[in-house]
Please model this.
Amino acid sequence: MSIVYSGINKEGLSTQIADAIRTAIMEGRLVVEERLPSETELAERFGVSRPTVREALKRLAAQNLIRTQRGPTGGAFVNRLSWSEAHDALVTTSTLLVGMNDIPFEDVVEARFTLEAACVPLAARRREDKHLEIMRREIAQQRIKDETDEGFCASDVRFHRALTDAAGNPVLSFQMAGVIEAMQPLMNMVTYRMRDRTRIADLHSALTDAIEGKKTRAALKVLEELSAYTLELMAARRKAREAKS
Model:
């Protein structure tokens, strides 16, 4: 089937061609493993030179949307995006979005815990021993007195990652990657100097107990306490900074 692409203007031709092909892939007009038209055919369709098409294909390959193969049966093919590739891209994008824009910390905290709260009912019903084991192990790690700030932060992320994975929904787990692995480190970075590690570990323990006991309301209440404590730490940090200025 011949794919119909929208027209392009003369500004940024390779970018526009890449966008047109990307749109065709996203809309399902080009499917996984399908071979794209040759450079010559694409050049004719878009009314551009082959080097311009080649540059557009390089852009798509850099985004893992297509791959190229050499030989008689070679060409450019629509790639199958793996979960790990999509995960890395989502975390990177979320980190840049939050870190490079003037987003109030309170909004980050609200989004972070609201989205995790959506996982709690499912986690309480579907959690497996492996999820609980990870959560307990991370709590033990967080109680080590000489644990570094970096180690504590990493353990904190792994704890919440296990909780969201316990929900047993791969799509939800994927979407939470940007929340847990981008927003959580940001909150840790802002509050690590003032937080009480013991209090956090205790809250994590109570949350794990509630999930293990399939007590959704109790788990949500603990999550609310974690959210409130995070905002409390941020308010204290802001007050301390204002006192110095």
The beta strands are 66-69, 75-78. The chain is about 70% helix and 5% strand. The first strand starts at residue 66 and ends at 69. The chain has two domains: 13-78, 84-244.
